[in-house]
Each structure stands twice: as C-alpha cells, then as structure tokens.
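thread: overnight batch results

M.L. [08:02]
morning all. the overnight job finished for the chain we discussed friday. pasting input first so we're all looking at the same thing
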Amino acid sequence: MGEHTQIIIAPGRYVQGRNAIYEIGEHVSLLGDRVLVIGGKRGLAVTREGRNKSFTEKEIFQVEELFRGEVCNSEIERLTGIAKQHNCNVLVACGGGKAIDAAKAVANNLKIPSVMR
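M.L. [08:03]
and the structure it wrote out:
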C-alpha cells in the first residue's frame, strides 16, 4: 500500500434519525423478506413497535429471539438453528455489542445479510 492509501470498511447503508426504526422495513425489504431479530430484552423492547409496524407494512415475516447474553458456540448454534427453522434470509440485531457480535456470527454462518440497530 502506498503512503497515501487508506482502507475504509463501512456498512453499505447507514441510516439514523428520530424514529428511523419505523423505516426499517423499507431498508430490510431490499435484502429479504424473512427476518430473524436478535437482541437483549431492552433492545427488543424499544424497537418492537417500530419494527412490527414497518415490517407489517412491507409484508416482512419476523421471528424475534432473545439473545442469552454470551457470544459462545452454543448460543451461535442455537440462533443459527432458529434462523434455519424459519427460513430467514436476513438477520437484524437490536442491542449492545455482544448481541451484535452474535448476530454477525449467525449471519456469517448462514451467508445472509445483516442489519445492526
């Protein structure tokens, strides 16, 4: 790499703003129509109303699953199994760092796109 060369790794799309969660269906619909939503109690609770409304408007099926708190093989396998059981083709993570890390691992296992909230 040259002296002035930079590598920037960034998401393909970044959305933020007041009530942006009410638009999540619009963005997720570009990726798929069957979503596994992973998060902690608080992350799931604060996004539920907006997700439900937006996913319903875009006719997106969702399965919500509580992340059990630790990023470990058994938890990743459990969540991967749930996604497979419901034929999920997109993964959405709602919450903090560990939930997001687990969601990324599940999405990677399944080779499906992921959305982090």
